[in-house]
Design brief:
With about 575 residues, the protein is an alpha/beta fold. It has two domains: about 15-320, Up-down Bundle (ABC transporter transmembrane region fold), CATH 1.20.1560; about 340-570, P-loop containing nucleotide triphosphate hydrolases (Rossmann fold), CATH 3.40.50.300. It contains 17 helices and ten strands. It has helices at about 15-20, 25-55, 60-115, 120-130, 135-160, 165-175, 175-210, 215-220, 220-275, 280-320, 395-400, 425-430, 445-450, 460-465, 470-475, 495-510, 525-540; strands at about 355-360, 370-380, 385, 410-415, 415-420, 430-435, 510-515, 540-545, 560-565, 565-570. Strands 6-7-8-3-9-10 form a six-stranded mixed β-sheet, sandwiched between helices. A four-stranded antiparallel β-sheet has the order 2-1-4-5, with no helix packed on it. Helix 17 (about 525-540) links the parallel strand 7 and strand 8. Helix 4 packs across helix 7, helix 14 (about 460-465) crosses helix 16 (about 495-510) and helix 16 runs parallel beside helix 17. The longest helix has about 55 residues, at about 60-115. The protein is elongated.
Length: about 575
């Protein structure tokens, strides 16, 4: 597997494996490049024949036919070059599109648990600016890499048939170009990787500053953060200029090596031509073809440096795609249209128990597990209140039931079937979740409510909003249910955003309802209204409510307490059946 600090390789095999959409376009670009090579050799032969004929004083009847043939060859060569360019650019566009789709799909399969341990700014930079940098890699570098092997071989064969001495000189000097290119490339690789790391750091830090700008302003830290962004930007500028300096140095070295090799061939051809040991037409053909032998190798070096940034970003994308999801089900091929495979076990949470058997959950980089030896049975119709201090593991337990994480020890079963064997989509269709801070997308109100059922009717959306107590303020919006909410739905209050989340849950109509402190950040009046709505929502469902409050007006069939990842008997106002942690 390639890694950023590993040796320089001309082609990343993982990138070609993940970018299958480009293979047809790349093949077309190579075929057209080969055709262009044939036309280039034919053009050199015709030019040499025309000039030699003119020197000998041949009549118009002879050189007019050659001139017409030359015009046809030039036109075909131009068409092949144009077609190859178009095919290569389409290959780059297909790769960007496919990699972005695969990255988005795989990030969903990795889940929020994995994403929480990553830098969102870096992933955003990779998926946008980074993959845009693949254009030079696929449109220029890869086609030229193939031609760098074909064109010199074709030129050598043609020159050898005309003059074997010149062919030997070319064959001896040709390896100098790739040797110098590799030496410079080894130096460039580290600089380009640093440039990319600085860009990812800049993107992540800028995202942090934008999201936390109100807090920075209140505490008077906006100016220092602007200074930090300036310093990181200056570092990125310096790294970019250093990379460009190396690229320009590489171009100088390759051009100098090619010029000296071409001059060497020209000298020996000129001396033998003066001595009468070489024909004029042959000498012209050799001199015309010699630069063409070195040109593809020089262009490979040039395009290699231009494509390094995109290749570095693509390596990061491939690293993410190579990351195995924690869920065994997620590692299997995706099921069509979100449906489980026929052989995948199913469960029905209206009738099946959910059992946690000595379940533990540990996050990488943490000293102690988030959950330790939890044993619990959730029966259909249970109303379970889960309380405990911050960091006790309440949200981690919900994350296991949402399939955001997988247990590091123990087992969760539903209806006697291991949860890891149940299709994630089938499971989540039976779960409704209302978090503390629901995320609303920059779509319309109706689209946000229908997030879990995009094919639902407007009447059902309206009914769900009415049950959630959201219909009044939605209808007061400029376009009602068709009003775009914008980024983070900032036009709505916290209570209104929570009501839209409740409308989602009503519309989903799932048998298992997970509530993660849905009134934690609301004032008492709005919180009381939300709790009234929850009573309706919880009717006939299995409910697990995470809360810091010590009173649940709807009543709980069981009340549990978590502390340091362990399940403890409930105390205080939470009067319920004691549940002990597994020994």
């Amino acid at each position: 597997m390639n890694n950023p600090d590993g040796p320089t390789r001309p082609v990343d095999s993982r990138l070609l494996r993940y970018a299958r959409a480009a293979r047809g376009y790349l093949m077309a670009a190579v075929v057209l490049g080969v055709a262009g090579t044939g036309m280039m050799i034919a053009q050199a032969e015709l030019v040499a024949r025309l000039l030699a004929g003119a020197a000998r004083g041949t009549g118009p009847a002879v050189w007019s036919a050659a001139l017409i043939a030359l015009l046809v060859v030039v036109a075909i060569r131009a068409a092949a070059a144009y077609g190859g360019e178009v095919a290569a650019l389409r290959a780059a566009a297909a790769v960007r599109s496919q990699l972005r789709r695969r990255l988005a799909d795989h990030l969903q399969r990795l889940g929020p648990g994995w994403l929480d341990r990553q830098q969102p700014g870096e992933i955003i930079a990779v998926a946008t600016r980074g993959l845009d940098g693949l254009d030079p890699y696929f449109a220029r570098y890869l086609p030229q890499l193939v031609l760098a092997g074909l064109v010199p071989a074709a030129v050598l064969a043609t020159v050898a048939a005309a003059d074997w001495i010149s062919a030997v000189v070319i064959a001896v000097t040709l390896p100098l170009i790739p040797v110098f290119a590799v030496l410079v490339g080894l130096h460039t690789r580290a600089r380009t990787q640093r440039q990319w790391e600085l860009l990812a750091r800049l993107g992540g830090h800028f995202l942090d500053v934008v999201e936390g700008l109100p807090t920075l302003k209140v505490f008077g830290r906006a100016k220092p953060q602007a200074d930090v962004i300036r310093d990181v930007t200056e570092g990125y500028r310096s790294a970019t200029m250093a990379t460009l300096r190396v690229a320009f140095l590489s171009a100088l070295v390759l051009e100098l090596a090619a010029a000296l090799a071409t001059a060497l061939v020209a000298v020996e051809v000129g001396l033998r031509l003066l001595a009468g040991h070489l024909g004029y037409q042959t000498a012209l053909l050799v001199l015309l073809l010699t630069p063409e032998a070195y040109l593809p190798l020089r262009q490979v070096g040039m395009h290699f440096h231009a494509s390094m940034e995109g290749a570095a970003a693509a390596r990061r994308v491939c690293d993410i795609l190579d990351t195995a999801p924690a869920s065994a089900d997620a590692s299997s091929p995706a099921h069509g249209a979100g449906e489980p495979a026929a052989s995948t076990p199913k469960c029905d949470l209206r009738y099946d128990d959910i059992a946690l058997d000595r379940v533990s959950l540990a996050y990488p980089g943490r000293d102690r597990p988030a959950l330790a030896g939890i044993s619990l049975t959730i029966r259909p119709g249970d109303r379970i209140a889960l309380t405990g201090p911050s960091g006790a593991g309440k949200s981690s337990l919900l994350g296991l039931l949402l399939r955001f994480s997988e247990p590091t020890a123990g087992k969760i079963t539903a209806g006697g079937t291991d949860l890891a064997r149940i299709d994630e989509n089938s499971w989540r269709r039976q779960v409704a979740w209302v978090p503390q801070r629901p995320y609303l997308f920059a779509a319309t109100v109706a689209d946000n409510i229908a997030l879990g059922r995009p094919d639902t009717s407007r009447a059902e959306i309206t009914r769900a909003a009415r049950l959630a107590g959201a219909d009044a303020f939605i209808e007061a919006l400029p376009h009602g249910y068709d009003t775009p909410l914008g980024e983070q739905a900032l036009r709505l209050s916290a209570g209104q955003r929570q009501r839209i989340a409740l409308a989602r849950a009503f519309l989903r109509d799932a048998p298992l309802l997970l509530l993660d402190e849905p009134t934690a950040h609301l004032d008492p009046v709005v919180a009381s209204q939300i709790l009234d709505v929850l009573q309706t929502l919880m009717a006939g469902r299995t409910v697990l409510l995470v809360t810091h409050r010590h009173a649940w007006q709807g009543g709980a069939s069981r009340t549990l307490a978590l502390d340091h990842g362990c399940l403890l008997p409930a105390t205080g106002d939470w009067a319920g059946a004691p549940v002990a942690a597994a020994p």
